[in-house]
């Protein structure tokens, strides 16, 4: 039987084909390529003790935090460990009572508010009070600092500095 539109033989539809000519189920030996029919049980996660290990509050390394580039935080933060600002903060950063922390404002970081920490390092932009008390402040060449800077020790490496500087003298011992 030839098809009128082209020279290829026409394939009869299954209704036109006799039942004896229909293909039967094809059996192919797959050998070892297929997994066994009875697979091993799927491993399941088991619930474990839900108590969290206690973290020593004096271990500041476990309290390291960062605000990533592209993020914007509005509000105040109480710091219990080192903090790095690569994004933007509109608010105050204050170290917790009895803990000495360091704050780094990276080149992409911007802080509009006060920073109170033992060590403050600025490579980005700040507008507010930088208060390290008797600690140290480092202002790098890419820094832009506006406001008040309180320090025990200060290092300025070509920063854009438009601020009042106030040295905090070490406490004198009364004898």
Automatic annotation (TrEMBL):
InterPro entries: BacA/B (IPR007607)
One Pfam family per UniProt: Bactofilin
Coiled coil: none
Residue numbers spanned by region Disordered: 1-22
Compositional bias per record (Polar residues), positions renumbered to this chain: 1-19
Homology family: Belongs to the bactofilin family.
Protein name as annotated: Polymer-forming cytoskeletal
Species of the source: Hydrogenophaga pseudoflava (Pseudomonas carboxydoflava)
